[in-house]
Design brief:
alpha+beta, 4-stranded mixed β-sheet, 3-stranded antiparallel β-sheet, 2 helices
């Protein structure tokens, strides 16, 4: 009987701890820096506080004028891609290109994010 009570108690403690951890992460916010770079020239840099798991697309659309076509970023603040010249937007998070698109990428930590408009060779 005591063993059953102990098992139930431990399960409650474990489940409560897991719930509390996810609750803490959802309330956590991070400071990120977004840089807009066009032809190797810094055009804009903003520091923004965002909540854990916020999608990069939402942050970008809340803070900049942007346009998409077929899920591809085509314009930020009137700086446009030029497919005829092979000039497109890419982005890096902490110096690395993520394997997810902007609409799927979620912020999990303080980050430096660069949106770069340049020729793709």
């Amino acid at each position: 009987m005591i063993r059953k009570i102990l098992v139930i108690f431990l399960n409650i403690v474990i489940l409560t701890g897991c719930f509390r951890e996810s609750e803490i992460n959802n309330d956590k916010s991070y400071k990120i820096t977004i840089s807009i770079i066009v032809a190797d020239e810094l055009k804009s840099r903003k520091s923004i506080n965002v909540k854990h798991d916020t999608k990069l697309y939402d942050i970008l659309s809340d803070n900049y004028s942007i346009k998409f076509k077929d899920d591809m970023l085509t314009e930020i603040e009137n700086y446009r891609d030029d497919p005829k010249e092979n000039i497109y937007w890419t982005y890096k998070v902490n110096g690395e290109m993520p394997m997810k698109g902007i609409k799927d990428y979620k912020i999990k930590e303080e980050s430096n994010i660069e949106f770069i408009l340049s020729e793709i060779k």
